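Journal club side-thread
Mid-discussion, someone asked how the predicted structure for our own chain would compare to the paper's figures. Pasting it here so we can look after the session.
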Amino acid sequence: DQIVGEVGAAIADLRQIAAGVRPARLDDGLAAALRDLARSSPIPVDVEVPVGRVAASIEAAAYFVACEALTNAVKHAAASKVAVRAVRENGTLLVSVSDDGVGGAVVRRGSGLAGLQDRVAAHGGTLSVTSARDGGTRVEVAIPCDS
């Protein structure tokens, strides 16, 4: 019941973002929001994020990526752990979410990953997915931001 509730809360956050509403979890910044997301996950999530802030819309896009990737790891990949990393480098926010699940994720029209790709592209960024069968999945995002 607890896991279902936590996944439900994460999905509610995703719906807020998809509707264009900034989730309350981001009030204290991306780092705090990602750590909070990790605490509510039913599987262990290692988080390494910067303390500094970037534009609110970029924080929201990065958070949305992390939420969707974590949801996919729990729901589809049978992952036992996830690692979330974010760093600002040369005017770009780099975010990666890696899991040790079954792999095989594909960006296809109408999927959550395609939606992420569109959201990141709207900020002038890129999203790539590496997901070999039995090799886990890695979602990587690069979004331009002020340095």
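Post-session note: The two ends are 43 Å apart (CA to CA).
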